[in-house]
Write a structure and sequence with these properties.
Elements lengths: L2 H32 L8 H24 L5 H25 L6 H27 L7
Helix pairs in contact: 1-2, 1-4, 2-3, 2-4, 3-4
């Protein structure tokens, strides 16, 4: 493996872990003090899903980039589509449940979803701007 690949991957992992822990703590705090209802999904399920999916797709795109593939934008778009499909699959039990109000659960899922997506785009931006990998 390329040492640059491993360095970028470790850096991304640490940043993603920090983002996940901070967002989880803030989200838990806000729910504890401002929300009194019961949620369908526990927060740790939602953040575990976002963490794992974001990490998996970053590793996939990073690996393709450092393997010499210049079709990073196509891989990113396919990964984003798959991420949306996995999100729908994750939310299917909620969608088919008979809860009277699902707004809180949907917001609890999609606000972190878009934050993680923005972080992923920010992190993958380097690969999208550079067409050919710099093998060091």
């Amino acid at each position: 493996m390329n040492s640059n690949f491993k360095t970028r991957l470790l850096s991304f992992f640490i940043q993603l872990l920090a983002l996940t822990l901070i967002l989880f703590a803030v989200h838990s705090y806000l729910l504890h003090y401002f929300f009194s209802g019961e949620l369908f999904f526990p927060l740790w399920h939602i953040y575990s899903f976002h963490f794992l999916v974001t990490l998996f797709f970053y590793v996939l795109i990073s690996y393709r980039y450092f393997s010499g593939n210049s079709q990073i934008f196509n891989a990113f778009m396919i990964a984003t589509f798959l991420k949306m499909a996995l999100s729908i699959i994750f939310l299917l039990p909620l969608i088919f449940s008979e809860l009277p109000s699902k707004k809180a659960d949907v917001l609890n899922f999609f606000i972190p979803y878009f934050i993680f997506l923005a972080f992923e785009v920010y992190s993958i931006n380097y690969f999208l701007l550079n067409e050919t990998p710099k093998n060091q």
